[in-house]
């Protein structure tokens, strides 16, 4: 640090001695004159009494004398002379140096306490008031008291517990029951250390199989007819004679069972019967046909005379209808088209028509209920060769061969 110059302050001058203080005598007090006040006091009861007697309301006068107290005497004190200054030691004056300013946060002001306000009780104020007399003027109308209608709160019905049993008691009983059940389960399973759970058996519903729709279900219960072929040499004539002997009414369908002695009395289907009657047909036809078949006899109702006039038969004329399942529809259609060239000559022994009465040299096209039909008439539709491959309701195809237009329509209606 550098050298510091010190300066001495001059000493103070001598102080004179103070003078003694002289007491001052008080001034004499001035006398005060008394003051007189007059007060008139009236009460409501006196005013009402004066009004009833017809007099003017008047109060009672009270005179009160008030004497003001004399003011206290003033005392005058003479100021003393200033005290002499006491000499002090010389002060050392140091040169001025910059003092660093240290900022401290200013304290937050303390909020003033909220003054407590005391409200006087209302009851005491009411008791201090003078009570008014109950005066009923003669002209006052009668007061009609209005009945106040109180709005009733909506009634809410709270369900109560069992009679004599509180809610807490029910909760206590329920908790004890749960604890007992848990204790029993723990005792039963403490040997294994785990709670055994019984799996819920799952029930698997077995679907009911839908019965397959077959030719037997589609045609239902039918009356039956039968033909038994013997070992005679002229089987076509024997077959024709037995068919014509079948008793049937118009528009009736019967199931025909054909058996043969040569087959050991077994039932014959379409290809078996053609083999037995020695009818030539494409060998591929047998490969396209299935095992399901039915042979029917239909009672012809629509009849035609020689001039082509239609008449209704009174007695049924039997017509044959063969229905056989088709495995390959496209192949069966192709084969039957090839067979058409010899079909007329070959089926004479099966259907018994006269070849010379054929109405067309080739098969013609027809359709019924969405099924295509190929046919030849001899000479009219009551004696024909009609065939069709029909798509039935059971999603199967059937080869239908008939010797009557009315007969093949009847079968198509049942299959579709």
Explain what you see.
- The chain is of the alpha+beta class.
- The radius of gyration is 72 Å and the shape is elongated.
- The protein contains ten helices and eleven strands.
- It has a domain at 215-415.
- It has helices spanning 44-53, 122-128, 167-189, 215-219, 235-244, 270-276, 283-288, 329-346, 348-351, 405-415; strands at 35-41, 60-66, 223-229, 253-260, 266-267, 289-304, 310-326, 364-368, 371-377, 384-391, 397-402.
- Strands 3, 4, 5, 6, 7, 8, 9, 10 and 11 form a nine-stranded mixed beta sheet that branches.
- The relative contact order is 0.08.
- The longest helix has 23 residues, at 167-189.
- It is 24% helix and 22% strand.
Key traits:
9-stranded mixed sheet; 11 strands; 416 residues; alpha+beta; elongated; 10 helices
């Amino acid at each position: 640090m550098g050298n510091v110059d010190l300066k001495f302050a001059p000493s103070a001058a001598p102080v004179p001695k103070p003078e003694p203080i002289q007491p001052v005598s008080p001034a004499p007090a001035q006398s005060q004159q008394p003051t007189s006040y007059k007060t008139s006091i009236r009460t409501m009861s006196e005013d009402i009494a004066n009004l009833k007697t017809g007099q003017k309301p008047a109060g009672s006068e009270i005179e009160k004398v008030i004497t003001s107290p004399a003011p206290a005497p003033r005392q005058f004190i003479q100021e003393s002379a200033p005290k002499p200054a006491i000499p002090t030691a010389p002060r050392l004056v140091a040169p001025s140096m910059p003092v660093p300013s240290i900022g401290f946060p200013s304290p937050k002001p303390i909020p003033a306490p909220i003054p407590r306000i005391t409200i006087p009780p209302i009851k005491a104020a009411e008791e201090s008031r003078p009570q008014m007399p109950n005066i009923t003027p003669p002209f006052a109308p009668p007061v009609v008291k209005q009945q106040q209608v109180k709005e009733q709160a909506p009634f809410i019905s709270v369900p109560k517990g069992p009679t004599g049993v509180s809610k807490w008691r029910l909760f206590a009983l329920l908790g004890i029951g749960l604890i007992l059940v848990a204790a029993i389960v723990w005792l039963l399973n403490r040997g294994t250390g785990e709670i055994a759970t019984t799996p819920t058996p799952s029930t698997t519903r077995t679907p009911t199989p839908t019965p397959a729709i077959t030719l037997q279900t589609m045609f239902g219960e039918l009356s039956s007819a039968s033909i038994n072929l013997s070992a005679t040499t002229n089987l076509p004539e024997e077959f024709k004679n037995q068919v014509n002997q079948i008793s049937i009414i118009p528009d009736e369908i019967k199931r025909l069972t054909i058996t043969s002695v040569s087959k050991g009395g077994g039932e014959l289907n379409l290809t078996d019967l053609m083999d037995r009657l020695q009818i030539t047909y494409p060998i591929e036809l047998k490969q396209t046909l299935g095992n399901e078949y039915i042979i029917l006899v239909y009672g012809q109702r629509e009849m035609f005379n020689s001039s082509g006039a239609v008449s209704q038969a009174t007695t049924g004329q039997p017509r044959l209808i063969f229905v056989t399942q088709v495995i390959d529809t496209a192949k069966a259609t192709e084969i039957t088209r090839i067979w058409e060239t010899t079909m007329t000559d070959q089926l004479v022994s099966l259907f018994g028509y006269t070849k010379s009465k054929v109405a067309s040299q080739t098969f013609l096209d027809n359709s019924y209920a969405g099924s295509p039909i190929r046919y030849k008439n001899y000479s009219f539709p009551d004696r024909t060769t009609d065939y069709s491959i029909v798509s039935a309701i059971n999603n199967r195809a059937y080869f239908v061969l008939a010797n009557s237009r009315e007969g093949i329509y009847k079968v198509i209606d049942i299959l579709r």
